[in-house]
Inverse folding.
């Protein structure tokens, strides 16, 4: 399964609780698109959020994020991983 | 130890061999700044590279990347991780 890194900009004001809620909203529906979010990280100063996933396509990742209320600004296919 | 995600833009033309060489150049000297690079990923179409590290500071991460010949364009402190 391809891996993706998606990036959200401008998610300022995240608390640990809000960040967890947003991630749980993805996890709750991810199987409907065959997506598995592995990790998520936030830089709470800049408001940048990074999500690592296994997914059939970038579109599948975006559909989950959109339905969960936080569309990604970038979705990168990770053609090389170390 | 704080975690960081650094991002390099414009690293086009990466092959698996070149990407591994670049990562190994970081690993070879990372201990001199107390940095541990955990993972690295590349989107070979856009030329964006993402590196996940444990490090004492963003400056420590950048000094390793600079000495290895590939200065990062962004270094994000990961204040929240899931």
């Amino acid at each position: 399964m391809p891996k993706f890194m998606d990036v959200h900009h401008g998610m300022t004001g995240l608390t640990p609780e809000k960040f967890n809620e947003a991630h749980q909203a993805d996890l709750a529906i991810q199987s409907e698109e065959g997506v598995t979010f592995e990790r998520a990280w936030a830089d709470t100063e800049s408001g940048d959020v990074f999500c690592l996933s296994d997914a059939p396509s970038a579109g599948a990742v975006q559909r989950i994020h959109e339905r969960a209320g936080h569309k990604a600004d970038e979705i990168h296919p990770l053609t090389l991983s170390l």
